[in-house]
Amino acid sequence: MNFVNLEYFLVVAEELNITRAAERLYMSQQSLSSHIRRLEQDFDTKLFERTPTLSLTYSGRKLARAAAQILEIKRQVTEEIDDINHRRRGNIRVGISHTRGRVLLSDILPGFKKAYPYVELSVLEGNSVELENSISRGGIDLMIGFAPIMVSDIVTVPLLTERLFLCISRTMLEQRFPGVSPEELHRRMETVSITDFADLPFLMMTPGNQIRTMLDTLCVKEGINPSIFLETENIETLLALCIKGMGITFYPELFVKDIGLPFEKPLNNGEVFFFPLSDPITMGHLVIGYRQNTYLSDVTRAFIEFVKDTYRQDGTADGEGRMDN
């Protein structure tokens, strides 16, 4: 038995399909099957049932759990030894939501790559539930997301607090408040309540996304049963449809800044406006999390410190390749 056989076995155990597993591993099906046969010979047991479809045997399920733990221990020991040898090399596995990756990673990675050119970064993008499942089983080292992280034994480091903005097209805003120009209305209203727009069609993130969870909680609190016209994981699609007057949507503060506003400056020739929501429920607390009682390599700790420096508690960022407030 060797570590490579265990790694290949886990991929097959996840996919339960030799073809897909071989594609993930960039190897032939024949070669992958040979590795699995050698592992079965080492343990003198059958790890997979081949018919009617590929499935783990009882022994296979036992080995899958143990193999994940063995490979995680190997990874941690390798990083410890690497640090002992005073190298600045390593691999950091970071999880971040689909919606956050584009904005946050473009702030963080250029400067970090310059400081640590030999560190490899693996990024997993998914919704909050997927990322929490991954960090709990050791699939990622760090998770950037919104508190609370619903997994036990996770240490969180606060990064920033941001507001959630209601996004509405000029056409819808003029219909909602006839006789008042959107620009004048924007100057008057420092915050808005979701109840003032509850009867309009909503364009929403799919369930499992933290923004969606936040809004669902707010709707329940206010007794609103929104008419949801569209759900998607792509926040840019929501904004594009909002601009076209298909409904209202909701945008995090960092995303609004990334678009290039000052908030008082209309986007897209004045076709869409952003208003911060007033309810404290819509204040999000961005954190970076890692598992308690797990070894963090020097480069992983350096990454955490770099992210903390990039997003200070007042929500600003500075330095090369980072956002200016």
Report the oligomer.
Answer: single chain
User: Approximately how much beta-strand content do the residues carry?
Assistant: 15-25%
Shape: elongated
Note the main sheet.
5 strands, mixed
Rg from alpha-carbon coordinates? 24 Å
Order of helix and strand elements from N to C terminus: HHHEEHEHEHEEEHHEHEHEHEEH
The N- to C-terminal Cα distance equals 54 Å
Strand order of the biggest β-sheet: 4-3-5-12-6
- Any low-confidence stretches, pLDDT <50, length ≥5? 261-266, 313-325
Helix count from the secondary structure assignment: 12
Structural class: alpha/beta
How many E strands?
12
The proportion of residues forming helix, as a percent range, comes to 40-55%
Overall pLDDT level: 85
Task: Summarize the structure in short.
This protein has 325 residues and is α/β, with parallel strands linked by helices.
